[in-house]
Design a protein that fits this description.
It is built from 14 helices and six strands. With 359 residues, it is mainly alpha-helical. It has one domain. The longest helix has 31 residues. The protein is globular and about 65 Å long.
Length: 359
């Protein structure tokens, strides 16, 4: 796999070195170990909730009626998503544990148990999104979409005028589309955004199919075979679960970059970006409640996105304490820094969709 080379503006400032110095005490060995333990505690909590959801699904723990089945599915979906937010994502960045094999195992489990292929996501996230967020043609997360216009440089079509209205309908199917379509689509591509000469082994292809079968067996087949649920109850609750977690996912993650407050970059032939790397990471990110410990427990640090993009190799449980230093440094060097509450961040996302629909 090869990467397209992008050139950021040379950094003549002391922005990041000052930031590292200011946060040095927060990142000593003892405090890093404490931060990792918090992330690992979250893994235990959310894994137990996930297991409890499956137990209730298979055993009629709360009764043999539709609402109990729906509750089991919603618990499975939400706890699984929070597990990925708070543990899987850290593991992908090797911040869940000091042991690489532990990170690999946790990451593999937390994504694949939800039907999402971990290897394909990590390839896109680590090698495409993180280096070049909101850079057209280099960030797979804003790649051209036939239904949505997500970048000012993408071709405008008449139906985009209404995308801020119809977006929620398609957002409802996001995770199902990811499981059933997107993974297979990316498996076939040998070029993706800034990545070229992508290849996957026959084993990888077999693994993907096997994991999909395992997921649908776990979430659909076993409740029918061993718990005796009515088949249409199961399908309906499964669909509702995915609608809920799809909206949760989009309206807590997409808003961290797709906003009328953030910058979008279109490259010319020189492949140069007129911002330093760290300046760019701030300009393309939105924080919401970044210093809140409660928000950190729920969103796994995605709400402190500036901290995550500046310090991707630090456990997310430290982000609430790192953020004040980022805010001070951004102010000192006159760098863009976007911070708002969750409702304003969601509104900003739909405003952005509406503005892109104006051509």
């Amino acid at each position: 796999m090869e990467h397209v080379k992008i050139n950021f503006k040379e950094d003549a400032t002391t922005f990041f070195s000052d930031l590292v110095d200011a946060t040095k005490e927060l990142m000593n060995a003892r405090k890093l170990k404490q931060a990792i333990r918090i992330v690992q505690l979250k893994f235990v909590v959310y894994t137990l909730l996930l297991i409890f959801g499956f137990v209730s699904l298979y055993t009629h723990l709360f009764g043999n009626h539709f609402l109990s089945l729906l509750g089991s599915y919603v618990l499975i979906g939400i706890s699984g998503l929070l597990l990925a937010f708070n543990s899987g994502h850290d593991a992908a960045h090797d911040t869940f544990s000091s042991k690489k094999w532990v990170n690999a195992a946790v990451f593999y489990f937390t994504f694949n148990v939800q039907g999402v292929n971990s290897r394909l996501w990590k390839m896109r996230h680590i090698h495409s999104h993180h280096p070049f967020p909101n850079v057209d043609g280099c960030d797979v997360d804003i790649d051209e979409n036939p239904l949505m216009r997500l970048s000012p440089s993408h071709p405008f079509k008449k139906h985009h005028k209404y995308q801020y209205l119809y977006a929620n309908f398609f957002y409802l199917f996001y995770t199902l589309h990811w499981i059933l379509v997107k993974d297979f689509k990316y498996l076939r591509k040998n070029e993706l955004a800034n990545l070229n000469d992508i290849s996957h082994s026959p084993w990888m292809r077999l693994e993907l199919i096997g994991l999909k079968i395992a997921y649908f067996t776990l979430i659909l087949v076993l409740p029918l075979l061993f718990a005796g649920w009515t088949w249409w109850y199961v399908l309906l609750c499964f669909g509702i679960m995915h609608h809920i977690i799809s909206l949760f996912f989009i309206l807590t993650l997409a808003i961290s970059h797709l906003s009328d407050a953030t910058v979008f970059v279109t490259l010319d032939a020189s492949k140069a970006i007129d911002m330093t790397y760290f300046q760019h990471q701030l300009a393309v990110s939105v924080d919401y409640h970044p210093k809140s410990v409660l928000a950190n427990w729920i969103f796994g640090g995605f709400n402190a996105h500036a901290a995550h993009h500046l310090f991707p190799n630090v456990p997310h449980s430290l982000y609430p304490r790192i953020t004040p230093y980022i805010q001070q440094a951004a102010s000192k060097f006159n760098y863009d820094y976007n911070n708002m509450n969750l409702l304003k961040a969601v509104k900003s996302h739909y405003t952005y969709l509406r503005l892109l629909g104006e051509g």
